[in-house]
Amino acid sequence: MSERQAYLEAALEAARTAGRMLREKVDTTPEVSYKGEVDLVTESDNLSQKMIVSHLGDRFPDHGFLAEEGLARESGSPYRWVIDPLDGTTNFAHHFPIFCVSIGLEFEGRSELGVVYDPMREEMFWALRGEGAFLNGGRVQVSAVADLGGSLLATGFPYDIRQTGDNIVHFNNFVVRAQAVRRCGSAALDLCYVACGRFDGFWELKLHPWDVCAGALIIREAGGRATDFEGKEFPSTTRRILASNSLIHGHMAEVLKIG
């Protein structure tokens, strides 16, 4: 087994293990605490993160880690795991079955591997840089929709929307130009849905590396694009992402300039 294949197998196993735990707990009443007015975290977020970091850390003890629930471990290694242990926490806390585990691996800051697991549908999305994107073993690719007016788009809203109103103008601009816009509550799954052609495009503001590390690579390996609003390819220092099947990318960028 090659080194990259070993990394992939470990990430797939970690995602399955944590995801199955989340599936078992989704219908229970979670213990909830708040990081902000509407930004919540459950005990399952923390348990999932501990499971994933333990699994990967045991196998690759020299690697660095960056994970949503307060983990930033620099190791001096060129490899860093970027983890969202439960993307869609608000959905999970309300027993709404759209959430996932997201695991990315960077080498010298470049995404090399991405794994996103939806335990409710048992859908495992994954990609290795240069080797294509896959869903449960079958190769996936982005849609062929070239007209923004015929596109199904997705977005999300930041946790501080009550104070800033961020993304409302963009949402209003897209909802009258696209066929429809959806807001599912999991950025990592939204990105994977672009990769497999369920959505044609996605945009969002104020995301973090753990939200997009895996999904952005999966989109690129499926033939799409993932950039910031100005067209710079990910990874970038911005927290604003525009992802698409590439055919409507320019059209979406023009709409984003209106706001």
Textual characterization of the structure:
It is built from eight helices and 15 strands. The protein is α+β, with helices and mostly antiparallel strands. The longest helix has 23 residues, at 3-25. The radius of gyration is 17 Å and the shape is globular. It has two domains: 3-140, 2-Layer Sandwich (Fructose-1,6-Bisphosphatase, Chain A, domain 1); 148-258, D-Maltodextrin-Binding Protein, domain 2, CATH 3.40.190.80. It has helices at 3-25, 43-59, 89-93, 161-164, 168-175, 187-195, 209-221, 249-258, and strands spanning 32-34, 40-42, 64-67, 71-73, 79-87, 100-107, 110-118, 123-128, 133-135, 138-140, 152-155, 180-182, 201-204, 225-227, 241-244. A hairpin with a 5-residue loop joins strand 1 (32-34) and strand 2. The model has no long low-confidence stretch (mean pLDDT 93).
